[in-house]
Amino acid sequence: xxxxxxxxxxxxxxxxxxxxxxxxxxxxxxxxxxxxxxxxxxxxxxxxxxxxxxxxxxxxxxxxxxxxxxxxxxxxxxxxxxxxxxxxxxxxxxxxxxxxxxxxxxxxxxxxxxxxxxxxxxxxxxxxxxxxxxxxxxxxxxxxxxxxxxxxxxxxxxxxxxxxxxxxxxxxxxxxxxxxxxxxxxxxxxxxxxxxxxxxxxxxxxxxxxxxxxxxxxxxxxxxxxxxxxxxxxxxxxxxxxxxxxxxxxxxxxxxxxxxxxxxxxxxxxxxxxxxxxxxxxxxxxxxxxxxxxxxxxxxxxxxxxxxxxxxxxxxxxxxxxxxxxxxxxxxxxxxxxxxxx
Length: 342
Ligand SMILES: NC(=O)c1ccc[n+]([C@@H]2O[C@H](COP(=O)([O-])OP(=O)(O)OC[C@H]3O[C@@H](n4cnc5c(N)ncnc54)[C@H](OP(=O)(O)O)[C@@H]3O)[C@@H](O)[C@H]2O)c1
What we know:
By secondary structure, the chain is an alpha/beta fold. It is built from eleven helices and 15 strands.
């Protein structure tokens, strides 16, 4: 098995490809020959050594999601056979050509989907599902704002919010992302670099937003909070802006940005009747029943043709560094995957 290993956190050079013996399969587990591994912004944070849940785990491999072919099935596993095409979730270790996971972290690959489509899907859709239905608990006809609406997670937020019957405004960093954000259901799509973001958002939602989904984490939180209507929820789920775009790790500017992350007083929240929430889906690995409920629901929408596949940029497993560089540039849209084998 080929695996991308991080011995010690750092820049792109720490993503080392190693060869290891094929992992054995225990009862309740399944081994999958991985064809594609999804790349998430969180993997870059893991590589840099700042991802809370990865602290103390090095040497380790990043990666939360993959798609491939079942290769071996452990004792007691029902419903999966050698040769089945599956996609799955893993608490790290997804950047590998073979992986062993508990059977309840796998689902059949939807008909007509490539392995790259399958690997590009579960983490961001689970994030969006959790953010919308467990954190913010949005209702039909509510007005929501999604930042980075052409990114992996943002596009999933917009799609699921629309399926739920919400009105969705999406913000993107550059005009080249507009068409994909529109295709995912954001209407209007506002291009941040054109400089009229808040006035345009106020025109769309003159009474304020019911929910805002923000993984920028620095410049937009305070302004977003101000544009919540009473009862509105600001959901923070990432802090990409702490890093400088294109940087392979935090520098002095990041420290400044870290210190600029706003705090919200409970006194003010109560007086304003507004909520500020944070969440991280990594903790769903301790609640797989909830993750399964979410993915099963989303698979239903896929079967009904209501979910648009992400445009996928493919990199070879050996080129994980190039994939990280692309994601850190802030210019990608849709998803990135690492391909292996096959
Ligand atoms: N809490 C959770 O459970 C959870 C789960 C999944 C993802 N996340 C978070 O959600 C965010 C998106 O993740 P993703 O994997 O789907 O990535 P992505 O959105 O596909 O790519 C990141 C996007 O963030 C924006 N961005 C803002 N500041 C940036 C910076 N300094 N460097 C690079 N990009 C920057 C850019 O879009 P625009 O310029 O268009 O805004 C960029 O395209 C990340 O912050 C990630 O940590 C959190």
